[in-house]
Amino acid sequence: TNNLSFEIAYVGSHIVHVGIPDSNLNQLTADQLAAGLTDPASLTRQVDNPFYGQIPGSSPIGGKTVAAAQLLKPYPRFQNVATYRHNSGTTNYNALEAKVEQRLSPGLRHGHYVTRCSTRSSTPWSQPRLRGQTVLATTCSLVGALLA
Fold it and tell me: Left if phi > 0, otherwise alpha if psi is -120 to 50, otherwise beta: which for 68?
């Protein structure tokens, strides 16, 4: 009838070169941190610093001894190894929107609305530990009704 309408729409976006948060690449692994929970001294005890004399003495890691955790890091000569504003992430958004509406009388209508969407963001290829993994994936479903 001419009092019933149906609409369907697709909404989507694909964004490249998304800036990712700064990250410190010089961190302990999850296994190393877990070992520190069961035996905190394995990470906190002071051990001889093999880099003593190579790192300025004014540095927190420049003394004769350092915490054992420092020597377990991927880059033990440094406190932080960070990436800054590396614009190599991607994100995709896809949604299907549907609407069915019926006019009951002038000024009064009844409708149902449905949106199904999906968002997916990926890490950059420049971070080997996270290469190609999906950082964020969400699916949503919105359903609504209207009587106006």
Answer: alpha
